[in-house]
Design a protein that fits this description.
3 helices, rod-shaped
């Protein structure tokens, strides 16, 4: 709930207008800052998750490239060995 309120405040509501209408301005500011902190924490967690996921995908891609390089080398070594054998005949 607080997250959606923070998004609403940042997008649809003017914090200054809320403060103008409020009797207890510190309560409005405290609520707003708390909502912003929650939003920032969530974004930070999403960033951390994305960074870890990208690192895992990068490692996986590097392993695939290494495996492909080894397979290519074996393939071409086999072709060369076959050519060498045919040339010897």
């Amino acid at each position: 709930m607080a997250l959606s309120r923070a998004v609403q405040l940042s997008i649809t509501e003017d914090i200054v207008a809320l403060l103008d209408q409020a009797v207890d301005k510190s309560l409005i500011v405290d609520d707003y800052l708390n909502d912003v902190r929650i939003l920032l924490d969530r974004v930070s967690m999403q960033h951390d998750y994305t960074s870890v996921r990208l690192a895992l995908l990068n490692d996986s891609m590097q392993q695939c490239l290494t495996d492909k390089e080894l397979a290519d080398r074996s393939f071409f070594d086999a072709i060369n060995a076959n050519d060498d054998e045919a040339a010897a005949l």
